[in-house]
Amino acid sequence: MPKLWNETIATHRAAVRAAVLDATATLVAEHGPTSVTMSQIAKEAGIGRATLYKYFPDVEAILLAWHERQITEHLGDLAEVRDQANDSGERLEAVLKAFALIAYESRGHRETELAAFLHRDPHVTHAQQQLHGMIQSLLAEGAQAGDLRDDIAPGELANYCLHALTAAGSLPSKAAVLRLVAVTLAGMRPVATEADPDAAN
Question: What pTM does this model have?
Fold first, then answer.
């Protein structure tokens, strides 16, 4: 089969898949995860039901694929804001702020039933490991530069940051989210000692 033809087919399949995931996200937001059917998804995506079944066996498979796409996009966004900052302290602040805002903006999609289902997805565990590694690296880099505390292991501090900022999903406003980020960052600063009274400045 000619290369151009293969590329055209691949592009078409990617477009159909994206349309299906977008349609599913819209329907779940409107009706909840248990009310969505394959027929509704096909209609919303503008394709036939038979075509939809060629891509996904059921609604659960579509939800998992949609969630995987969301996770990938979020990780990409976090890596982008990290790479745009100048030093380790700025990079950490940018990533923590972006993560907290993602948690805050996703709060409306966290139907208990849907969240419980999606968080069984192995992609969630993998993404959490990637995010933890990203923050841990920034903390280690900052500690080595003297910008961040070095009296606690970076991995432990990364756990603290992630657990603290997950609470952003229950906050009432973006202003409250930014205050939470500021408090979390304050806990990352070097601890002053008698021998080095200016370390916290």
Answer: 0.74
Helices (H), 49-121: 49-55, 59-84, 88-105, 112-118
How far does CA 96 lie from the centroid of its chain? 11
Among 2.102.10.10, 1.10.357.10, 3.40.50.2000, 3.30.70.20, name the CATH number for the domain at 59-201.
Answer: 1.10.357.10
In CATH, the number for domain 1-57 is 1.10.10.60
Which H or E run includes 120? none
Task: Tell me the per-residue pLDDT of 22-34, one tens digit each, with 9 for 90 and over.
Answer: 999 899 878 877 7
Quote the longest CA-to-CA distance of the chain: 74
Q: Exposed/middle/buried for 188, CB within 10 Å: 0-12, 13-18, 19+?
A: buried
Please count the other Cβ atoms lying within 10 Å of the Cβ belonging to residue 65. 18
